[in-house]
Amino acid sequence: MLALRLVRGTRPVVQLRRLLVAAATAGVGFLLLCTLGYAVGHPDRSPASALRLLWCALPLAATVQFAVAVARTDPSVRPRPGLSAVGLGPARLTAVAAASTAVACTLGSAVALLLYLHLRGDLTGLPFDGAAAGLLAADRPVPLAAALTLLALPPAAATTAAGLALRPGRTDAPAPRGAERTLPSGLPWGVALVAVGLAAETYAARGGGSGLPLPGRFDGSPTGVLAGWVLTAIGLATAGPGIAHGCGRLLQAFRPGAVRLLAGRVLMDEAPRIGRPLGVVGAVLSGLIAAATVYASGPGTDAFGPLTGLGALLIVVCTTATLLTAALESRQYRARTTEALLRLGAPPTVLRTAALMRAGVLLAVFLPVTWLVGTLAALPLTG
């Protein structure tokens, strides 16, 4: 009840972010139900059904990451003076954040079920009822237990991840003075994972098969390519904080002025918080570059199907929204520093210029890295 009151009493912008989480969960739930419909309609193609379910894991992970990012920026669960006196300590606020995430994701799963039944033709009286009856195996009954189990996956995963991310004693607080000279330790591990992933893709491509293991092109495709791309994505996400930290050092190189020094120091301090979602976005873009290169080079290849397009759209939108939410969280963390600089007489244009410098150097570094990894990932499949 307390979580519902806090959800209802927040600002419209916060409510919009929660609705976006519900919409993303609805998309993932619909993909899971479509996978179930394919399995019910094609009982003789269980390997293809399993691979379709494996493809749904990527949009699910992107949605969970977005839900956690929204929960971290929720002002209603932020510790404030006096809340502990009325029983709202850190542990209780973590439970409230998890409950708010569960409410939004459960709403999305319910919408997914209604949309699925409507497109099958089980719910009539509305436009487009039964429009996808053939695709969703409308001639067969829906296994209710399996459908509810699949729909429970996104809320359960997002709620658990939000509770773990916001638990008391977590290690995402700002670094102490002097620690931001310390290079994040994930950079060498990330580079190693990227190299292993590219090697796995090359080995799998030489083993036979062609194309990417996406829905509609599962049969005969090397499943090791997907495993290699996952390793590459994890590597880029792991190396993201280190790359962002290096960008901050680059801004401060060669006799920096006040603006470059401020931009570099802030970027180095924000690297652990914004670098990981930035690395995930880079991994997603590199995968899209590789997929577009492979499909463009293949003779007579078909375009992505509607469900594949929906899954790719969910991944891109959720990862981009997670990056923007992480940037908002970083802005909230440095709000006191910004106020102190303004009180000391710093012009607002200096702060805006520093922000543009941070964005520019991140784009200048991450875009070439993303293009290089995507091109290298496509070479084993196009050669």
From TrEMBL:
UniProt keyword terms in alphabetical order: Membrane, Transmembrane, Transmembrane helix
Keyword Transmembrane helix: yes
Lineage: superkingdom: Bacteria
Record's keyword annotation contains tRNA processing: no
Name under which the protein is recorded: Integral membrane protein
Transmembrane segments: 20-40, 52-72, 93-117, 144-166, 187-205, 225-244, 278-297, 303-328, 361-381
